[in-house]
């Protein structure tokens, strides 16, 4: 009995001095006082002596109150927001802001997602030190003593309020902000695109560094097996997760547009990348709301991306821009759509993941269907645009140029593997058909000037001129010259941008025109120009002149350039 009284007296002296001088000794004194209190409470002699029990109980309550103040002060003093530079230092080199690969502010500079995912597999993220390691055991012991005294709600409340506020400050310093759909709608595209690129980094940093770090110190300060600890972690992170995901929700719900597709896929990709970690971090029952919010955002991003595909296809087919391509070259819509399709294949692995997760279809087949539909919508629109030309030959040249551009782009991209050789061959034949139609429309009339139908049954040897008079031959040459000059003047202003296609089309015309012209000159030249020179000559051009002038066709020259 005397020993317990002595223990109580010594413990009281330590407790009255407070925990600041020697926290470990203070905690030891509380343990001694709690032991003495149990002894007095369990002893019949002292049970009836209220003074002793009241004294030890009040002393214990005073000690716990001081502990609560100490816990709050210690936690507050060592809980500071993490500066962005410190967070960046915790990232792998490839994801730090100084690295070129981390700059995703422009939707067009998307990395190849297959290589990106492989590089991330080997990346190491080192969560920052949120509370100094030497302080954690003290906080743990303080928390345990308070919980033993039945003050667990107070200690959890202090912890939640302190850590939640600090976590929010860390996120805000990084650049995270709560934004609504209306806020997003008001932004210019360039500013919004930059914010999306930043948000992708923020989500990765928040999950892999800040939330992971919070879970770690929560488990170290409290017993991680306690269900209340899960609730404590949930309360610390809940509002911060909501603030972080609010921007993603706003983007997913905002007005759809074609240029948003690739940033939607970027956002979907980061959410899929972090999904397993989110499920682990927020795997408890207390965190189910945050886990579901993250999964819902991933699903919404996927749905919005798929709806954007449909929107884009319809927009391409119905595009009514009156941008006139006067020279029949590749239309801006064609190059825009094809570049769009090329970007789709930069996101192939992300798209395949999206299709697997939410459509339960063969991802390659689905990507092929989307690509086919978009290119078909483009061809339908180009057919409509081609009808704007008054010259039917230019209509055919325009379609030839644009379909050729589509085919060439597909052949040089991954789209070829999905669309297949049959698709390529069919569309190459379509290009050839338009080239043949151009040739027929442009050159059939002028070739008639060089065609002579033999009369009678004696054959050409009997009558070399086939009944054509000198005047008729001169008229044929005159008509040919006028028509060829008109064609040269008009079609040298037209454009075939692909050099290979341009040369093959010139050659196809030359193979028909030059032999017929040589034959006509050989047959009728002496009849009209025998001995004549200069302006008196009906034969204005030699075959070589025609060949040289044909090489000026489809160069997109202005009228002034032709005269020079």
UniProtKB/TrEMBL annotation:
Residues 198-552 form the Exocyst complex subunit Exo70 C-terminal domain. InterPro entries: Cullin_repeat-like_dom_sf, Exo70, Exo70_C. One of its GO terms (cellular component) is exocyst. Residues 93-116 are annotated as: Disordered. Keywords: Exocytosis, Protein transport, Transport. It comes from the Eukaryota. One of its GO terms (biological process) is protein transport. One of its GO terms (molecular function) is phosphatidylinositol-4,5-bisphosphate binding. The keyword Transport applies. The keyword Protein transport applies. Pfam families: Exo70_C, Exo70_N. Component of the exocyst complex. Belongs to the EXO70 family. This is Exocyst subunit Exo70 family protein. It comes from Cucurbita moschata (Winter crookneck squash).
């Amino acid at each position: 009995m005397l020993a317990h009284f002595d223990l109580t007296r010594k413990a009281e002296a330590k407790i009255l001095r407070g925990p600041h001088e020697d926290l470990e000794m203070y905690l030891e004194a509380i343990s001694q006082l709690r032991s003495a209190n149990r002894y007095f409470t369990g002893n019949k002699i002292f049970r009836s002596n209220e003074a002793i029990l009241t004294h030890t109980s009040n002393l214990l309550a005073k000690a716990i109150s001081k502990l609560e103040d100490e816990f709050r002060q210690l936690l507050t003093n060592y809980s500071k927001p993490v500066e962005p530079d410190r967070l960046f230092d915790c990232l792998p080199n490839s994801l730090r802001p100084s690295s070129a690969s981390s700059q995703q502010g422009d939707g067009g500079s998307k990395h190849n997602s297959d290589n990106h995912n492989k590089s991330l597999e080997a990346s190491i993220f080192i969560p920052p030190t949120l509370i100094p390691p030497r302080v954690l055991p003290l906080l743990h012991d303080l928390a345990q003593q308070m919980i033993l005294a039945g003050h667990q709600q107070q200690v959890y409340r202090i912890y939640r309020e302190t850590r939640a506020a600090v976590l929010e400050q860390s996120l805000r310093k990084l650049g995270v902000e709560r934004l609504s759909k209306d806020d997003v709608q008001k932004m210019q595209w360039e500013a919004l695109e930059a914010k999306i690129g930043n948000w992708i980094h923020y989500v990765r940093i928040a999950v892999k560094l800040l939330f992971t770090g919070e879970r770690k110190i929560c488990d170290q300060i409290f017993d991680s097996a306690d269900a209340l600890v899960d609730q404590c972690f949930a309360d610390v992170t809940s509002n911060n997760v909501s603030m972080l995901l609010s921007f993603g929700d706003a983007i997913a719900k905002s007005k759809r547009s074609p240029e948003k597709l690739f940033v939607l896929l970027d956002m979907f990709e980061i959410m899929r990348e972090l999904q397993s970690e989110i499920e682990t971090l927020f795997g408890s029952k207390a965190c189910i709301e945050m886990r579901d919010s993250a999964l819902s955002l991933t699903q919404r991003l996927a749905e919005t991306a798929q709806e954007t595909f449909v929107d884009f296809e319809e927009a391409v087919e119905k595009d009514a821009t009156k941008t006139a391509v006067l020279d029949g070259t590749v239309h801006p819509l064609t190059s825009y759509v094809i570049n769009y399709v090329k970007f789709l294949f930069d996101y192939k692995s992300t798209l395949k993941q999206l299709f697997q997760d939410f459509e339960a279809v063969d991802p390659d087949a689905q990507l092929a269907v989307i690509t086919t539909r978009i290119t078909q919508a483009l061809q339908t629109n180009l057919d409509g645009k081609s009808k704007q030309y008054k010259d039917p030959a230019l209509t055919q040249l325009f379609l030839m140029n644009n379909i050729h551009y589509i085919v060439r782009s597909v052949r040089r991209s991954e789209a070829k593997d999905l669309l297949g050789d049959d698709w390529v061959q069919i569309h190459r034949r379509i290009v050839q058909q338009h080239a043949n139609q151009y040739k027929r429309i442009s050159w059939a009339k002028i070739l008639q000037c060089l065609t002579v139908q033999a009369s009678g049954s004696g054959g050409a040897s009997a009558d070399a001129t086939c009944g054509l008079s000198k005047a008729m031959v001169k008229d044929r040459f005159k008509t040919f010259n006028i028509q060829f000059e008109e064609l040269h003047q008009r079609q040298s202003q037209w454009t075939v941008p692909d050099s290979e296609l341009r040369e093959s089309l010139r050659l196809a015309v030359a193979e028909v025109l030059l032999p017929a012209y040589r034959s006509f000159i050989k047959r009728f030249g002496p009849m009209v120009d025998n001995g004549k020179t200069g302006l008196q000559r009906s034969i204005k051009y030699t075959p070589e002149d025609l060949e040289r002038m044909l090489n000026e066709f489809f160069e997109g020259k202005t009228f002034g350039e032709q005269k020079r």
